[in-house]
Specification:
Layout lengths: L3 H29 L16 E7 L4 E6 L3 E7 L6 E7 L2 E5 L2 H8 L9 E3 L5 E8 L13 H8 L6 H11 L11 E3 L3 E3 L5 E3 L8 E7 L3 E6 L16 E7 L8 H4 L2 H13 L2
Antiparallel strand pairs: 1-13, 2-12, 3-11, 3-13, 4-5, 4-8, 4-12, 6-7, 7-11, 9-10
Length: 272
Amino acid sequence: MTSLETKREIAEANRRRYEELRAAGQEATPKALPAATALDGAPIAPGAIISSEEVPADWYTIVRLRRGDALRVIDPSGQSSVSMIGWRDEDTSERINCADTVKVQWSAALSKGRVILSDMGRVLFSLIEDTSGSHDILVGGSTPASTAAAYGATTRNTQENFVAGAAKIGLGVRDIPSCVAFFAPVSLDPNGRFSWSQSRKRPGDFVDLRAEMNATLVLSNCAHPLDPARPSAARPVMLVRHRVAPAAADDPCRTGSPEAMRAFEFTDRLYA
């Protein structure tokens, strides 16, 4: 039987290891991330475009990506937020996992060089370009209750858009994971409460998501529940699916942290 003293020694060793990993994840890794993309940077060659579409305010769309495709999400007006959920195309029991995305990268801040993980510890998406760096992975999308509280009536909202989108691909409520919201400048104030930083939103902001697995997505263009604009300021957004080079051995998303490297190894095995 393990003595109480031995248990304490093991616990202390585990704590020291945790602190070492946390320090590396929160201090060293961000320094290795690439600089944000300029608003006029990273043009897409016309020949690389597979498809494009405009998503009206308050509506949603379904997008399927093949491994190696990229999806550029553009906020032309600087007023919209785009919420996204997704699944691995071959097996929809594997889905986007916001909690693991935060935990594995020791940060809730998504930006260029970061990855979005599945619940199997694999990389679903890499953020290969990003002008914004203002994305929310904690609060979630709007609901009937949040829209009623904000606007005095239940309007189209992300929760119901996700349910409708999932139904079109044969999925139900139990299949819907938590979402990532792009162009949603959520931060914590000194009291630990969520706050909204409108000054961090700019017309023309975009983010490029490179698919590391075959994926099916639902994207909802509804106002974020913390957006203070009354009425909703959401405007149409643009989605551009295009071809990009696969992640090389020295790709910054792949090499950004030991945890990301392992997640890529798990992903590569799936498609070996």
